[in-house]
Amino acid sequence: MQRILRYSLSLLVLSLLSIALGAQGACVINDQGDAVQPGTGGECINTVVSAVPFLRINPDARGGAMGDAGVALSGDANSMHYNASRMAFAEQDFALGATYTPWLQALGLNDVYLAYLSGYKKIDEFQAIGASLRYFSLGEIQYTDVNGMNLTRGNPNEFEFALAYTRKLSERFSASLTGKYINSNLAAGQEVSGIVLEAGNAFAADLGFTYRNDNIRTSGGKRNKFAVGAAISNIGSKITYTQDTVRDFLPANLAIGAAYTFQFDEYNELTITAETNKLLVPTQCDGTDVVNCDPDAINDQSPISSIFSSFSDAPQGFGEELREFTYSVGAEYWYDKQFAVRAGYFHEHQTKGARRYLTAGVGLKYNIFGLNFSYLVPTSNQRNPLDNTLRFSLLFDFGAQADAR
């Protein structure tokens, strides 16, 4: 019951329309030796799950309009979410950002949302510091007991506070280190099977790396830009809501991406980016190997050892490991550095969540002020909590104000 409560409140509410949790651990081997769902014969669904999945919700409308890609984009106030080392190459000295993302709006819920505040300040030409605050409101919920009788009403919420330091290690290469505190208050004070639940707390860190060359000469004499980014995020302690020995993994994640910018002339530029992500979380048993797959041994791993084992622990072998990667592609066109049009696509294998969607958006920038919008359109039968939802980000580049003066 404790594990069900932890996952149902944090995972079921957050991923109500995006992950098929019901099929976890219910696969069988057919006559051909393939893992399939019993009854239907469909592909075995074995979604990788973790606690506090709100850490993986993209809060940035710019990257959100580009298929949720952002690890290799140019630095801005929302770099903290993707890859804090981007900040070392940011053009402005000081920037702030604020983003509001409605969640499950298609169900008519107006009090479930993600709010994100972030920013950075350059110390000098080589160093920068950043900070962010992520707050996820799950709205008002009626708590019930095991018999379905109403108890009290509550407002579960989760938040993350992060501080980052980034430094250029050379003219074209930077690295960053981010420290985080995570608080997940899903049902504090409620009692389950005689155990009083508490708010979960955890500490984590991110590592980020960026290689960027903004001086690629073309035959026409123009200077194009190329960047590669990588980040390992949410490396940290496990989290529990009962202070017992059963603790759950944070959504540790590996992101690798590249971006190339074509400078057509002084007014027009186009950036193309591609990115892949993989959760560095153990893959659970799918029910097909009851002899060699031990759920307790999987959950007892340390956070560090689980990162390494996550590349080789899929029950169906290497082929299943490859299915755990998600892929994003995106494009961004700027005119006169004042108006942007963006589009992208996100793909996840049908046995690992089945999220597939197109994204689009626009951006406006005037002096110190920037405004980004993004919109998501699903392309699969698996619905998404952001279906047909407009989200927006505000950006303030105070360095631009100084330049204007």
Task: Give a structural overview.
It contains seven helices and 20 strands. It has 405 residues and is mainly beta. The chain has one domain (2-404): Porin (Beta Barrel). The strands form four sheets. Strands 3-4-5-8-9-12-13-14-15-16-17-18-19-20 form a 14-stranded antiparallel beta barrel. A two-stranded antiparallel ribbon has the order 1-2.
Total number of strands: 20
Please give the order of strands in the largest beta sheet. Answer: 3-4-5-8-9-12-13-14-15-16-17-18-19-20
Q: How many strands, which pairing sense, and closed or not: the largest β-sheet?
A: 14 strands, antiparallel, barrel
Helix content range: 10-25%
Task: State the separation between the terminal residues, measured CA to CA.
Answer: 62 Å
Query: Helices and strands, in N-to-C order?
Result: HEEHHEEEEEEEEEEEEEHHHEEEEEH
Q: How would you name the CATH homologous superfamily?
A: monomeric porin ompg
CATH architecture: Beta Barrel
**CATH class value:** Mainly Beta
How much strand? Answer: 35-45%
* Tally of domains: 1
Structural class: mainly beta
How would you describe the shape? globular
The helix count comes to 7
Instruction: List low-pLDDT spans.
Output: 1-24, 401-405
The overall pLDDT average reads: 85
CATH topology: Porin
Which radius of gyration do the C-alpha atoms yield? Answer: 22 Å
